[in-house]
Protein backbone atom coordinates (compact mmCIF):
# COMPACT_ATOMS: atom_id res chain seq x y z
CA UNK A 1 0.00 0.00 0.00
CA UNK A 2 2.78 2.44 0.87
CA UNK A 3 4.56 1.74 -2.41
CA UNK A 4 1.28 2.14 -4.28
CA UNK A 5 0.57 5.47 -2.61
CA UNK A 6 4.02 6.76 -3.49
CA UNK A 7 3.66 5.54 -7.06
CA UNK A 8 0.33 7.33 -7.39
CA UNK A 9 1.82 10.60 -6.15
CA UNK A 10 -0.05 10.63 -2.85
CA UNK A 11 1.58 11.91 0.31
CA UNK A 12 -0.11 9.92 3.08
CA UNK A 13 -1.81 6.65 3.98
CA UNK A 14 -4.06 5.36 6.74
CA UNK A 15 -3.27 2.06 8.41
CA UNK A 16 -5.56 -0.44 10.11
CA UNK A 17 -3.71 -1.74 13.14
CA UNK A 18 -6.76 -2.34 15.37
CA UNK A 19 -9.43 -4.80 14.21
CA UNK A 20 -12.88 -3.17 14.46
CA UNK A 21 -14.53 -6.56 13.91
CA UNK A 22 -13.28 -10.07 14.73
CA UNK A 23 -11.33 -11.47 11.80
CA UNK A 24 -10.53 -8.11 10.19
CA UNK A 25 -7.02 -8.03 8.74
CA UNK A 26 -4.64 -5.62 10.46
CA UNK A 27 -1.00 -4.64 10.11
CA UNK A 28 0.77 -6.54 12.94
CA UNK A 29 2.66 -3.63 14.48
CA UNK A 30 1.14 -3.34 17.97
CA UNK A 31 3.79 -4.37 20.48
CA UNK A 32 6.10 -5.40 17.61
CA UNK A 33 9.22 -3.19 17.57
CA UNK A 34 10.74 -4.92 14.53
CA UNK A 35 7.59 -4.45 12.43
CA UNK A 36 7.32 -0.83 13.57
CA UNK A 37 10.92 -0.14 12.59
CA UNK A 38 10.53 -1.78 9.16
CA UNK A 39 7.31 0.10 8.43
CA UNK A 40 8.78 3.37 9.65
CA UNK A 41 11.77 2.88 7.36
CA UNK A 42 9.51 2.21 4.38
CA UNK A 43 7.39 5.29 5.08
CA UNK A 44 10.52 7.40 5.28
CA UNK A 45 12.14 5.90 2.19
CA UNK A 46 9.07 6.62 0.09
CA UNK A 47 8.36 10.02 1.68
CA UNK A 48 4.89 8.95 2.80
CA UNK A 49 3.41 10.05 6.11
CA UNK A 50 0.97 8.05 8.20
CA UNK A 51 -2.17 10.15 8.56
CA UNK A 52 -4.23 7.88 10.78
CA UNK A 53 -4.60 4.51 12.44
CA UNK A 54 -7.88 2.66 12.79
CA UNK A 55 -10.23 1.70 14.29
CA UNK A 56 -11.32 1.74 17.92
CA UNK A 57 -14.90 0.68 18.63
CA UNK A 58 -16.29 2.53 21.66
CA UNK A 59 -18.76 0.52 23.73
CA UNK A 60 -20.17 0.97 27.23
CA UNK A 61 -17.66 -1.48 28.70
CA UNK A 62 -14.63 -0.77 26.51
CA UNK A 63 -11.32 -1.09 28.35
CA UNK A 64 -9.25 1.48 26.50
CA UNK A 65 -6.02 0.37 28.17
CA UNK A 66 -5.86 -2.59 25.76
CA UNK A 67 -5.30 -0.12 22.91
CA UNK A 68 -2.20 1.41 24.49
CA UNK A 69 0.27 -0.65 22.38
CA UNK A 70 -1.56 0.30 19.18
CA UNK A 71 -1.57 4.00 20.06
CA UNK A 72 2.12 3.82 20.94
CA UNK A 73 2.84 2.14 17.60
CA UNK A 74 0.79 4.73 15.75
CA UNK A 75 2.61 7.70 17.21
CA UNK A 76 5.99 6.00 16.65
CA UNK A 77 5.02 5.69 12.98
CA UNK A 78 4.04 9.36 12.83
CA UNK A 79 0.25 9.12 12.90
CA UNK A 80 -1.74 12.22 13.85
CA UNK A 81 -5.16 10.61 14.34
CA UNK A 82 -6.82 7.45 15.58
CA UNK A 83 -10.30 6.73 14.18
CA UNK A 84 -13.10 5.89 16.62
CA UNK A 85 -16.61 4.54 15.97
CA UNK A 86 -19.36 4.86 18.57
CA UNK A 87 -21.58 2.04 19.82
CA UNK A 88 -22.94 3.74 22.94
CA UNK A 89 -26.44 5.13 22.43
CA UNK A 90 -27.00 7.41 25.44
CA UNK A 91 -25.25 10.74 24.63
CA UNK A 92 -23.83 11.55 28.07
CA UNK A 93 -22.42 8.06 28.51
CA UNK A 94 -21.10 8.11 24.95
CA UNK A 95 -19.35 11.41 25.62
CA UNK A 96 -17.83 10.06 28.83
CA UNK A 97 -16.41 7.05 27.02
CA UNK A 98 -15.15 9.20 24.17
CA UNK A 99 -13.47 11.54 26.67
CA UNK A 100 -11.66 8.58 28.26
CA UNK A 101 -10.27 7.60 24.87
CA UNK A 102 -9.27 11.19 24.13
CA UNK A 103 -7.39 11.40 27.42
CA UNK A 104 -5.49 8.20 26.64
CA UNK A 105 -4.76 9.32 23.08
CA UNK A 106 -3.55 12.71 24.31
CA UNK A 107 -0.77 10.99 26.22
CA UNK A 108 0.44 9.80 22.81
CA UNK A 109 -0.17 13.19 21.15
CA UNK A 110 -2.94 11.74 18.98
CA UNK A 111 -6.27 13.29 18.05
CA UNK A 112 -9.35 11.04 18.12
CA UNK A 113 -11.25 11.26 14.84
CA UNK A 114 -14.88 10.50 15.71
CA UNK A 115 -16.69 9.06 12.70
CA UNK A 116 -20.47 8.99 12.46
CA UNK A 117 -21.81 5.99 10.53
CA UNK A 118 -25.51 5.28 9.91
CA UNK A 119 -24.89 1.61 10.77
CA UNK A 120 -23.45 2.52 14.18
CA UNK A 121 -25.10 4.14 17.20
CA UNK A 122 -23.66 7.50 16.15
CA UNK A 123 -25.61 7.96 12.95
CA UNK A 124 -25.55 11.65 12.00
CA UNK A 125 -23.38 14.74 11.88
CA UNK A 126 -25.46 16.45 14.57
CA UNK A 127 -25.06 13.49 16.92
CA UNK A 128 -21.30 13.50 16.41
CA UNK A 129 -21.05 17.24 17.03
CA UNK A 130 -23.06 16.81 20.22
CA UNK A 131 -20.65 14.16 21.53
CA UNK A 132 -17.68 16.40 20.73
CA UNK A 133 -19.34 19.26 22.59
CA UNK A 134 -20.27 17.17 25.63
CA UNK A 135 -16.85 15.54 25.86
CA UNK A 136 -15.07 18.89 25.43
CA UNK A 137 -11.65 17.39 24.72
CA UNK A 138 -8.87 19.45 23.11
CA UNK A 139 -7.89 16.52 20.88
CA UNK A 140 -11.46 15.64 19.90
CA UNK A 141 -11.97 15.78 16.15
CA UNK A 142 -14.61 14.97 13.51
CA UNK A 143 -14.11 12.56 10.61
CA UNK A 144 -16.41 13.14 7.64
CA UNK A 145 -17.03 10.36 5.11
CA UNK A 146 -18.94 11.39 1.99
CA UNK A 147 -21.07 8.26 1.84
CA UNK A 148 -21.93 8.38 5.54
CA UNK A 149 -22.95 12.02 5.22
CA UNK A 150 -25.21 11.12 2.30
CA UNK A 151 -26.72 7.96 3.81
CA UNK A 152 -27.45 9.72 7.11
CA UNK A 153 -29.64 12.21 5.22
CA UNK A 154 -27.00 14.92 5.32
CA UNK A 155 -25.66 17.32 2.71
CA UNK A 156 -22.48 19.39 2.39
CA UNK A 157 -24.44 22.51 3.33
CA UNK A 158 -24.78 20.99 6.82
CA UNK A 159 -21.03 21.48 7.29
CA UNK A 160 -21.25 25.25 6.91
CA UNK A 161 -21.49 26.02 10.62
CA UNK A 162 -18.90 23.51 11.83
CA UNK A 163 -15.76 24.98 13.41
CA UNK A 164 -12.96 24.29 10.87
CA UNK A 165 -10.65 23.31 13.72
CA UNK A 166 -12.89 20.33 14.53
CA UNK A 167 -12.24 18.53 11.25
CA UNK A 168 -9.68 15.71 11.38
CA UNK A 169 -9.76 14.71 7.71
CA UNK A 170 -12.33 13.45 5.21
CA UNK A 171 -12.99 10.19 3.38
CA UNK A 172 -13.70 10.60 -0.30
CA UNK A 173 -15.77 8.28 -2.49
CA UNK A 174 -18.87 8.32 -4.69
CA UNK A 175 -22.23 6.56 -4.82
CA UNK A 176 -25.64 6.76 -6.49
CA UNK A 177 -27.74 9.61 -5.18
CA UNK A 178 -30.61 7.23 -4.40
CA UNK A 179 -30.43 5.74 -0.92
CA UNK A 180 -30.13 1.94 -0.76
CA UNK A 181 -32.51 -0.08 1.39
CA UNK A 182 -31.51 -0.51 5.02
CA UNK A 183 -30.72 -4.17 4.32
CA UNK A 184 -28.34 -3.22 1.49
CA UNK A 185 -26.63 -0.36 3.31
CA UNK A 186 -23.86 -2.52 4.85
CA UNK A 187 -23.06 -4.03 1.45
CA UNK A 188 -22.88 -0.62 -0.21
CA UNK A 189 -20.75 0.87 2.55
CA UNK A 190 -18.22 -1.95 2.70
CA UNK A 191 -18.18 -3.44 -0.80
CA UNK A 192 -19.88 -1.21 -3.37
CA UNK A 193 -18.34 2.23 -3.09
CA UNK A 194 -17.58 4.03 -6.33
CA UNK A 195 -14.56 6.04 -7.39
CA UNK A 196 -14.94 9.82 -7.12
CA UNK A 197 -16.75 11.12 -10.19
CA UNK A 198 -18.33 7.78 -11.11
CA UNK A 199 -21.46 8.29 -9.02
CA UNK A 200 -23.93 11.07 -8.34
CA UNK A 201 -22.91 12.53 -4.99
CA UNK A 202 -22.35 16.27 -4.57
CA UNK A 203 -18.55 15.97 -4.39
CA UNK A 204 -17.71 19.51 -5.62
CA UNK A 205 -19.98 20.94 -2.91
CA UNK A 206 -18.46 18.54 -0.39
CA UNK A 207 -14.94 19.75 -1.18
CA UNK A 208 -16.05 23.39 -1.07
CA UNK A 209 -17.58 22.90 2.39
CA UNK A 210 -14.36 21.53 3.90
CA UNK A 211 -11.38 23.57 5.12
CA UNK A 212 -9.02 24.18 2.22
CA UNK A 213 -6.03 22.42 3.75
CA UNK A 214 -7.89 19.33 4.96
CA UNK A 215 -6.49 15.91 4.08
CA UNK A 216 -8.75 13.90 1.77
CA UNK A 217 -8.46 10.12 1.96
CA UNK A 218 -9.64 7.77 -0.78
CA UNK A 219 -12.08 5.27 0.78
CA UNK A 220 -13.52 3.12 -2.01
CA UNK A 221 -13.77 -0.57 -1.03
CA UNK A 222 -15.45 -2.41 -3.89
CA UNK A 223 -16.00 -6.01 -4.93
CA UNK A 224 -15.70 -4.83 -8.55
CA UNK A 225 -12.00 -4.11 -8.11
CA UNK A 226 -11.18 -6.66 -5.41
CA UNK A 227 -9.03 -8.74 -7.77
CA UNK A 228 -6.83 -5.88 -8.93
CA UNK A 229 -3.32 -5.31 -7.59
CA UNK A 230 -3.26 -2.88 -4.67
CA UNK A 231 -1.07 -0.42 -6.57
CA UNK A 232 -3.53 -0.31 -9.47
CA UNK A 233 -6.51 0.27 -7.15
CA UNK A 234 -4.67 3.13 -5.47
CA UNK A 235 -3.65 4.65 -8.81
CA UNK A 236 -7.22 4.52 -10.11
CA UNK A 237 -8.53 6.11 -6.93
CA UNK A 238 -5.92 8.87 -6.96
CA UNK A 239 -6.57 9.69 -10.62
CA UNK A 240 -10.33 9.81 -10.05
CA UNK A 241 -9.96 12.06 -7.02
CA UNK A 242 -7.66 14.43 -8.90
CA UNK A 243 -10.18 14.75 -11.72
CA UNK A 244 -12.85 15.80 -9.23
CA UNK A 245 -10.49 18.20 -7.45
CA UNK A 246 -9.49 19.79 -10.74
CA UNK A 247 -13.14 20.51 -11.42
CA UNK A 248 -13.29 22.09 -7.97
CA UNK A 249 -10.27 24.27 -8.68
CA UNK A 250 -8.02 22.37 -6.29
CA UNK A 251 -4.41 21.81 -7.25
CA UNK A 252 -3.61 18.40 -5.79
CA UNK A 253 -4.87 15.31 -3.95
From TrEMBL:
<dbReference type="Pfam" id="PF01261">
    <property type="entry name" value="AP_endonuc_2"/>
</dbReference>
<dbReference type="GO" id="GO:0016853">
    <property type="term" value="F:isomerase activity"/>
</dbReference>
<dbReference type="InterPro" id="IPR013022">
    <property type="entry name" value="Xyl_isomerase-like_TIM-brl"/>
</dbReference>
<protein>
    <submittedName>
        <fullName>Sugar phosphate isomerase/epimerase</fullName>
    </submittedName>
</protein>
<dbReference type="InterPro" id="IPR036237">
    <property type="entry name" value="Xyl_isomerase-like_sf"/>
</dbReference>
<keyword id="KW-0413">Isomerase</keyword>
<dbReference type="InterPro" id="IPR050312">
    <property type="entry name" value="IolE/XylAMocC-like"/>
</dbReference>
<feature type="domain" description="Xylose isomerase-like TIM barrel">
    <location>
        <begin position="5"/>
        <end position="242"/>
    </location>
</feature>
Amino acid sequence: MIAGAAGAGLDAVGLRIIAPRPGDVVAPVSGNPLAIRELKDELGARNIRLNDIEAIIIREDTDFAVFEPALAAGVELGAAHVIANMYVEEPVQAAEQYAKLCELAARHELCVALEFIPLSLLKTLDQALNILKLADQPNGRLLIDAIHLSRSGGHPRDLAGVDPKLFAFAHFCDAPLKQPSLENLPLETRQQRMLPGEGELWLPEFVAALPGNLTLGIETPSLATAGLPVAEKIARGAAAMRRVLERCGEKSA
